[in-house]
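Deliverable D5.2: sample structural annotation.
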Amino acid sequence: MTTWKNLMNGTGQAPATPQPAAAPAEYHGLHTYLRDRYADVVVLTFGQIEDLLGFALPALARVQREWWANAGADSAPSAQARAWTDASRTATPNLSARTVTFERAPA
C-alpha cells in the first residue's frame, strides 16, 4: 500500500520529477546560470562564459561556429551544448563580437 509517507521519500518533500541527463560537471556553472535566468534572451561575452566555467574556452570556440552548434534532430548534443540545451536554450555565437546569444527554446 502506498502512503503519503512513502511518497515523501522520507525527506518531507514530494519526489522530484525526472530530469534529463545533467550537463557535464565542467559546464555546470553555465548551465545553472542559464537555467536560472527569467529572460528569454541572454547575451554573454566569452569572458563572462569563462568566468562561469572557471576555465578558458577552447580555441575552437573562438573561431568555429560549429563548436556552439545545438544538437540536430538526428544527433546528440556535444558536452558543451548540453549546458544550454538542458537549460532549454539555443546558442548563437557572434565570433567577431566574442558573444553568444542564448535564447529560450520553444516549449
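Annotation notes: Strands lie at 41-45, 89-94, 99-104. Residues 1-11, 13-20 have pLDDT under 50 and may be disordered.
The annotation will be released with the project's public dataset once the embargo ends.
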